[in-house]
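We emphasize that the prediction below concerns an isolated chain of 163 residues; any contacts that depend on oligomerization or on bound cofactors are therefore not represented. The input was used exactly as deposited, without trimming of termini.
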Amino acid sequence: MSLSFCVLLCQCGSSAGARWEYKFAPGKTAVIIGGRAVPPANAPPEVLRAISAGNRICTKPYRRGGGHARFEDSAYDCSGTTSYVLHAAGKLSAPTVSGAFRSYGSSGHGRWITVYARKGHVFLEVAGLRLDTGYSDADSDGPRWSSRSRPTKGYTMRHPSGL
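Result of the prediction step, given as a token string:
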């Protein structure tokens, strides 16, 4: 079973639109323990690095523009978080803003990493878990791993080549 079958993107009614959903599959998806992501044993090295990077920043606070000027920062916003994790995976050379991720990498859902981007926000799915800063600046605590569903209407799915 490939990872794309383990994490569902489903239609939850015409008024709700598309949603990102987590569905655990033993050996295929990461889990959250104590706020940190624990990767599946068979994850490729790039995914292990991405998860490790997400774990390093998942307690950092939110700051608009955080992580934009440089990868290492004291606080992160959505695109700073995404840039940091993709850089650690060896899939991004310079920090970028959320809207630019709409044309990042290859189109569609990735096997291990998927970027969900729209103008004004971006979040990641890594080994089936969502790494996100929230729904808006007002409700963000900073980068956090989550298995909670979230709407994806208006988002473009992209993924790093090979992942």
